[in-house]
Amino acid sequence: MGEVDPAFIQDLEHRPKLSINEAEGIPLIDLSVLNSPDAVSDPSTLQSLVSEIGDACKNWGFFQVINHGVPLEIRQKLEQASRKFFAQPLEERLKISKDEGKVLGYYDAEHTKNVRDWREVFDFAVHNPIRVPASTQPDDKAVAEWHNQWPEYPPKLREDCEEYVEELEKLSYKLMELIALSLGLPADRFNGFFKDQTSYGRLNHYAPCPGPDLALGLGRHKDSGALTIVAQDDVGGLEVKRKSDGEWIRVKPTPDAFIINVGDIMQVWSNETYESVEHRVTVNSERERFSIPFFFHPSHYTMVKPLEELTSEKNPPRYRPYNWGKFLITRKGGNFKKLDVENIQISHFRI
Questions:
Q1: What confidence score (pLDDT) does residue 332 get?
Q2: Residue-wise pLDDT tens digits, 44-97
Q3: C-alpha 330, offset from chain centre
Q4: Cα(29)–Cα(232) distance, rounded to whole angstroms?
Q5: What is the C-alpha to C-alpha distance for residues 99 and 336, in angstroms, rounded to an integer?
Q6: Over 60: is that where the pLDDT of 339 sits?
Q7: Contact 228, 266 (CB under 8 A)
Q8: How do 322-323 and 279-281 pair as beta strands?
Q9: Mean of the per-residue pLDDT values of the chain
């Protein structure tokens, strides 16, 4: 079977159980009403969808969507291209390696909670380049740019990635509008935050692991952005920490569905009406697994803070404002090396 390098081994309390709990899956929500004329003529059909989204955000922080309007062939093309990219010899993949200077590209040594993840990734900007602060210093107003790096093979990877994220961006705005309505806000309340968005897409590859009881494909974590949309294959491995009892629940693969989760920014904007939930990815010893997450992130100059409409004397703001770009580059730095302390978290800004 081979051995697992100690860098990948999780502490005892964080090691995955090999028995899978799929007892109660995350909510599955049908978005077909968004593409139907009835939604305009009959507000109650839209209201019912908004309630479903609100309940899922409140009770789980996660849900799956079907009939979402993203053409299946666009997703399938990128899934095939991703398989081809990761099947290349390592030296080919390493030609577009990312590091602290080049934040987008290929990488196989990412750390989560200071333990190495059993996976390799390829990251690319939705709008190239991504503009971010040049340093973590609060008074430094200089801006840097993160540029995409594209491999020679597969030749159409760039085109497939760009076509895919264009569709996912449209879906993100639709979902953000539904979430806004579920919070009693105008549908377009969040749109302005994404003018110069820092969103990016990622191709994930999890190779078979000789010690699936010792390592994780991706260690337990919460997403720092506003919204994440994941396409996973039929192998499965994503687990969500159920809010009601803290149990890890496997997200069952649903054909042509996307998995959605609200991130830390939404937790702050909603003043904890909705919570960003811990999740992780397990690996197995037989089958490789592929997934494609899309991270919907606001402009770097966004000051993230609870929305005024959702705070009051009885429900005061629970977070101090923080600059999203500074937060993002601090967090990214921790992905490349093992830190002596916990990486930056929104809890550091909690009042």
A1: 80
A2: 889 999 999 999 999 999 999 999 999 999 999 999 999 999 999 999 999 999
A3: 17
A4: 17
A5: 7
A6: no
A7: no
A8: unpaired
A9: 91
Q: Where are the alpha helices (DSSP H) in the chain?
A: 38-41, 43-59, 72-87, 90-93, 157-182, 264-269, 324-335
- C-alpha to C-alpha distances, 285 to 97, 114, 211, 216, 292, nearest whole angstrom: 26, 23, 7, 12, 21
- CA–CA separation, 304 and 16 (whole Å): 34
pLDDT at 250 over 80: yes
Query: How many other β-carbons are positioned within 10 Å of the β-carbon of residue 351?
Result: 8
- Rounded Cα distance between 176 and 220, Å, is 25
Report the alpha-carbon distance of residue 113 to residue 97 in Å, rounded: 22
Write out pLDDT tens, residues 267-299. Answer: 999 999 999 999 999 999 999 999 999 999 999
Structure tokens at 122: 């390829």
151 touches 95 (CB < 8 A): yes
Please, how many CA atoms are within 13 Å of residue 153, restricted to the half-sphere of its CB?
Answer: 12
Q: Is 45 exposed, middle or buried (0-12, 13-18, 19+ CB in 10 A)?
A: middle
Neighbours of 60 (CB within 10 A): 23
Q: Is 302 helix (H, G, I), strand (E, B) or coil?
A: coil
Question: The whole model's pTM is what?
Answer: 0.93
Scored b (16 or more CB within 10 A) or e, 219-256 reads: bbbbbbbbbbbbbbbeebbbbbbbeeeeebbbbbbbee
The set of residues, in sequence order, having a beta carbon less than 8 Å from that of 343 and lying 6+ positions away, is 330, 331, 334
